[in-house]
Each structure stands twice: as C-alpha cells, then as structure tokens.
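User: I've been going back and forth on whether these two constructs are worth ordering. Before I decide, could you fold them both?

Assistant: Sure. I'll take them in the order you sent them. The first construct and its structure tokens:
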Amino acid sequence: MPKLWNDTIEAHRQAVREATLDTTAALVAEHGPASVTMSQIAERTGIGRATLYKYFPDVEAILLAWHERQVTRHLGHLAEIREQGDDPGDRLKAILKAYALLRNQENYDDDMAAFLHRGDHVTQAQRHLLSFIADLLADAARSGHIRDDVEPAELAGYCLHALNAAVGLPSNAAVERLVAVTIAGLQPQP
C-alpha cells in the first residue's frame, strides 16, 4: 500500500481510538462505570458496535486504555514543568505542586481507583515517577536547597506518599498547604 494510504488509515484508527476513550470517560462521569455499555459508547462515538469491538473487547479495556493515556499525559506535563526552570529548588517545588494538583483532580471512587490502578502501566509509571522525583531531589540536595542526609530515593517515596493525601482536599489552597508541609520536611537539618 502507498505510504499516504497507510498514514490515512493509521490517522483514522487513532482518531477512532481517541474518540472512544473520550466518549467512555464522559459516559462514566455521567452514569458511573457500572452502567456504561459498549452499545452506548458506539452510539455516542458514532461508530458501529462491530467496529468498536475491533478496537476493544469490553468497557474495562477502554477504561484501562483511557487511564494509561491519562497517566502518560500527566508524566509528560511534569516533564514539561521540569524543563521550565534553572533553579533546582524552584523546579522541585513546581513539580511537587503540579503532582499534588493532579492527584487532587482525581475523583474516582475506591472501586474505580482500585480497578484503574491494577494495570502494569501504573507500576511502570510509579517507577518512572519515583526516579524522576529522586533525580530532582538529588539536584536540589547538591545545590543546598534540601537536606542531603537522606537518600533521594527515600525522599522521593516520602514526597509521593505525602502528596497522595491531596486526593479529596477541598481547595487548591489546601493542596498548596500540603505541598508546603511536604517541602518543609525536605529542609536541611541545622
């Protein structure tokens, strides 16, 4: 097949996939995950059910693909922020705040969170995020912005666990206070 034809087919497939993920997320937000069907997704997306089944075997597979896309976007967002500053301390604060705000925006019930976080993509993302934060902490420690008496990997675990408490906080101000408390725990010891 000509390259243009292949590119057109691939673009179409990607558009159908993205529309399916977006539509499913909207339906879940409206009706809850248990009540969304493949028929509803196909109808709202504007594709046939048979076509939808060529892409995904069931609603659960769509939700996992949607979550994987979200996680990838979040990691990309954090990487963009990392590139915006020269000062290691400021970069670290910006990343921790952005991570806490992302966590705060999650509004899954416990069952949905358990379902979405069971995939391999989550394990890989967590490893990537721990390494990412540990590298930032190492830079900040070398520049004297944070303590250097604890390994960066341990501090990364501390930060991520502390900032996971941002889920469900009532306001951005509450999230910022949580970030401030977390950063206070990173300060060099006298």
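The second construct, handled the same way:
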Amino acid sequence: MIFLRILLVLALAYVGICVLLYLFQSRLIFFPGPPGARSPRDAGLAFEEVWLSPDGGGRVHAWFVPAPDARGAVVFCHGNAGTIENRLETLAILHRLRLTALIFDYRGYGRSEGRPSEANTYADAQAAWRHLTDHRGIAPDRILLWGRSLGGAVAVELAARHAPAGLVVESSFTSVPDLAAHAVPIWLPTRLLCRHVYDSAAKVAKLTCPKLFIHSPEDDVIPFEYGERLFAAAAPPKRFVRIRGDHNQGYRESGRAYLDPVKAFLTEVLGP
C-alpha cells in the first residue's frame, strides 16, 4: 500500500507539473517591458509615433523612423523581452544603413494594449506591414523583414504571407518545441505541451525571397546549432553569417563581421 501511495503521489505531481507548464508557458516565453520615457530622439533620430490596429483588437505602439535618401524600408521585429525603447542602438544602425524603419511593440509590451501570444505577435507584425504598404505606399519589393531572437520567428511568418525584398533572421531558432526539448528535463512531454509553436523551420523551407541568417557560437540563450538547423532547413537563396558575442551583445561586439555581410545583403536585395 505504501508503495502504491508513493506512486500515486508521484503521478499526481507529474500531472501537476505538466498542467502548470501548459497553462503558464506564456510567462516562460514573453517578458514584456513596461512603458518608459525614451524615444528615437534620444539616439538623435527623427521619428513619428504610430498606433497600429492589428486584427483581434487593441492598439499597438510603433515608431516610424525615416532615413534620408532611403534605399528601402524595414519592419523590425524585436525579441521576447523589453520594448522598442531597448532597441535604440538597432534603430541607429538601420538609419546608418539608409533604411527607413518601422519598429513596434507586441501587444502587452510597452504602451501596446492587450496580451502577447503567438497569434497576436503575427497579427501585430501584419499590421506593421499594412502600415508601410497601405498607409505609406511603400512597394513590397522595397521592404525588408528583420527579426531578432523571437522576432526572427515573427519575421519568418510575415515573409510567408507576403513577398518582401528580403528576410534577415538573427539569433533565432527552429521552433519553440525544439527549444523546450533542449531546455526542459527529458521526462516531460514538452513537445505535446507547447501551445506556442513558432515553427520557423517548416516555413523557411517554402520561402523564395533572399534570406540572411546571423548567429553566434557564443549565444547563451539560443544555442548556435538551432541557427544552423534553421539555415539548413531554408530554401535558397540564402546566406549564413557567423558572428561573435552572446545573445544580446553579438551584433554590438562583432563590428564589421556583422555589418559588412549585412551591407552586402542589402546591396543584393535593394541595390547599391
């Protein structure tokens, strides 16, 4: 009897852990930052504040940062933590690359309303695309999609819906179930429990636009092998760039090893 009771307690504990993982996994994926007081003006950039209206309701906060003599435009999808206020350095880089940028906060991040989810992040990016094409009148073949970390999966989904000039996927992954299987103990059925999938590997295999993948072997959040797997799954044309530095500092630490391949890619897809 004692043995059976122990087995029952262990079984209930196991089921309880699975239920908690299923119900609260959003808290393990999304880490929204609160509204702040910074803006592109703090980086010396002119900008327009924009409110997007995604499918599903709510308002999404965004910045439109025009570049003088722009060679094209970019929808930038940031990672799972913080807000657009933490991406001012990235906006400055895009500006130097002569890219007019539209950067937005997912629902539940910063000043954006609602709650984040896989479906909502996709819809938020779709609203950003509509703003550039419908409101700004920018042709799809002049728009680059760029995503970093979780934003890479969002950008991949947006590229699957449209025909952009090109796609940049930086420090991203194949799918959430793949990452979960890597991070969570093997005795948990993580793949079955994942409500958020972000299956980028399946999508990039069908994308015909030019693609640039960037990842660092020193990435401490998303292992380098997942960047390699994502690249391997992608249909051509495609390029892979190996940078250095950790997950959040790689683009800063790599210098020309990061910027030179990006510039070459931009010349390829947008012209000199």
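Notes on the second construct follow. Residues 205 and 234 are 4 Å apart (CA to CA). The two ends are 77 Å apart (CA to CA).
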